[in-house]
Amino acid sequence: MHQDAQPPLDVETGRVRGIYDAMAPRYDRMIAVAERLLFRDGRQWACAQATGRVLEVAVGTGRNLACYPADVDLTGVELSPSMLAQAQARAQALHRSSTCDSATPST
Ligand SMILES: C[S@@+](CC[C@H](N)C(=O)[O-])C[C@H]1O[C@@H](n2cnc3c(N)ncnc32)[C@H](O)[C@@H]1O
Q1: Contact 93/65 with Cβ under 8 angstroms?
Q2: How far apart are the CA of 58 and the centre of ligand 1, in A?
Q3: Domain count within the chain
Q4: Could you tell me if residue 33 is inside a domain?
Q5: How far apart are CA 104 and CA 83, in angstroms?
């Protein structure tokens, strides 16, 4: 095998999914620190630009959901089932008419 060869996509995808599945219970606490120090109001600013039908790829735990204008028709996709479960719970708690679904239909 060539030295620079990448592992097959499904192996790499599984590896990344495993990392985020393991991180999911701590993700919100971990990222909250970076948000305060680095992002500041970046989420609010970016999401406020959205209009109409929006696809958020890698929606994570859904931390952006509350930042979109109420009339945005949002679909979020996410690789990690544990992250996705949190996004779905968050969407429900916010009464958002958003759809958060798996990025990999077979999972
Ligand atoms: C750093 S987190 C960011 C989550 C969220 N966007 C946020 O701002 O908090 C990266 C997310 O990307 C997801 N992800 C990685 N590769 C992906 C892919 N190919 N398709 C969908 N989601 C993916 C991970 O599972 C993880 O939840």
Answers
A1: no
A2: 4
A3: 1
A4: yes
A5: 13
Ligand 1 atom 2: the closest Cα is on which residue?
60
Separation in Å, CA 84 to CA 30, 45, 77: 17, 23, 8
Q: Is residue 28 part of a domain?
A: yes
Predicted confidence (pLDDT) per residue in 16-60, tens digit: 999 999 999 999 999 999 999 998 899 999 999 999 999 999 999
Q: From CA 56, how far away is CA 96, in angstroms rounded?
A: 14
Alpha-carbon span 55 to 64, nearest angstrom: 12
Q: Helices 9-34 and 81-93 sit at what angle, rounded to 10 degrees?
A: 50
Give the position, in ligand 1's atom list, of the atom nearest the Cα of 56.
Answer: 6
User: Rounded to the nearest 5 degrees, what angle is found at the Cα of 89, between the Cα atoms of 107 and 38?
Assistant: 95
